[in-house]
Amino acid sequence: RQSACRQERSGASSFGEGVPIPKVLCQYGRKENLLKVLRLAKVEFLSVVRPASFKIIFGLLIFIIFMQNLFWNSTYYVGHQVPLTSGMCNVRLANGFLFMVILMLLAGELFYKERTSGFWQITGAAPSPTWVLQVPKLLAMFAVAFVFALAIFLGGICAQALQGFWDMDLALYM
What we know:
The protein is mainly alpha-helical. It is elongated and about 75 Å long. The chain has eight helices and two strands, in the order αββααααααα. Strands 1-2 form a two-stranded antiparallel sheet.
C-alpha cells in the first residue's frame, strides 16, 4: 500500500511490484551545463592519472626532480652552496621541455580518445553543446599541469629538508 502511494506521488508506472520507474527530467540550462562540465572534468582527469603508464612516468619525473635538486648543484663552478629555494625552482627550467612534451602527448590522447575508440559518434549525437564536452578535457589538462607543478614544489621542499636547510621561502615556489 505504501508503494502505491509513492507511485501516485511520482506519477510513474512500475515494472513490477514496488519498483517505480523514475521520472526523467530533461534540463539543458546554463547551470546544468556547468555542472556537467565539472563532473566530466573530474572523469577526464581521472582517466589521465589512473593508468599505470601515467603513474610510472610521473614517478620518474618526481625521481628526476628530486635527484637533480639533491645532487646537482653549482658546487663544481662556485663551490659549496646552501640549497636555496631559488635553486630548487630552477629545475623547471632544465626539465620544462620534458614536461611540455609529456603534457602534449597526454592532451593529444585525451582529446582524440573518442576518435580512436569509435565513441565519437555517440558523443557527437549528445544533446549538449560542443563546449560542454571539450572544456572538461581542457580543465583536466590544467589539473595535470598543476600536479606536475606540485611535484616540482614537493621535490624541492624534500630536497631542501634532506640537505638540512629549513629556512625555506615558500613564496618563491609560487
